[in-house]
């Protein structure tokens, strides 16, 4: 269980065949700034992209979104700007984004 006031990491990933259309340059130079501009006012504090080798099938790209807290995540994904962020996906890929939340594994 996470504390509602702790930072929250959301990973958005794109998975598919190695030959899937994914414009890395557009993603980094245009889409991620769109995401940041749309959601910074709701508590998004950073976005970073990670890419495996281009010839690998499976995960083609991962974006780490760091939000101030749980309320920031809820506010961003339910904001009036969210549909515009999602509509921009078609500019760089035909793959559907998948979102997952990172949680500590716990233990001592």
A few lines on this structure:
The protein has a single domain, classed as Alpha-Beta Plaits, CATH 3.30.70.100. Strand 2 (44-50) and strand 3 form a beta hairpin.
Shape: globular
Q: What about the largest sheet?
A: 4 strands, antiparallel
Query: Biggest sheet, strands in spatial order?
Result: 2-3-1-4
**Number of strand segments:** 4
- Note the run of SSEs as H and E: EHEEHHE
Number of helices: 3
Uncertain runs? none
Descriptive report:
This protein has 108 residues and is an alpha+beta fold. It has a single domain (8-101), classed as Alpha-Beta Plaits (2-Layer Sandwich). Helices cover 28% and strands 28% of the residues. It has three helices and four strands. The chain has helices spanning 24-39, 70-77, 82-87, and strands at residues 8-16, 44-50, 58-67, 98-101. A four-stranded antiparallel beta sheet has the order 2-3-1-4. β2 and β3 form a beta hairpin. The longest helix has 16 residues, at 24-39. The mean pLDDT is 92.
Protein traits:
single chain; 108 residues; alpha+beta; Alpha-Beta Plaits; 4-stranded antiparallel β-sheet
Task: Annotate the secondary structure layout.
Elements: E1 8-16, H1 24-39, E2 44-50, E3 58-67, H2 70-77, H3 82-87, E4 98-101
Antiparallel strand pairs: 1-3, 1-4, 2-3
């Amino acid at each position: 269980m996470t504390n509602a006031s702790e930072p929250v990491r959301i990973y958005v990933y794109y998975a598919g065949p190695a030959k899937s259309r994914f414009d890395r340059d557009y993603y980094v130079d245009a889409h991620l700034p769109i995401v940041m501009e749309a959601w910074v006012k709701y508590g998004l504090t950073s976005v970073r992209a990670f890419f495996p080798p281009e010839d690998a099938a499976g995960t083609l790209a991962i974006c780490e979104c760091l939000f101030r807290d749980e309320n920031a995540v809820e506010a961003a994904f339910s904001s009036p700007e969210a549909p515009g962020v999602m509509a921009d996906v078609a500019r760089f890929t035909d793959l559907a984004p998948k979102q997952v939340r990172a949680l500590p594994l716990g233990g001592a």
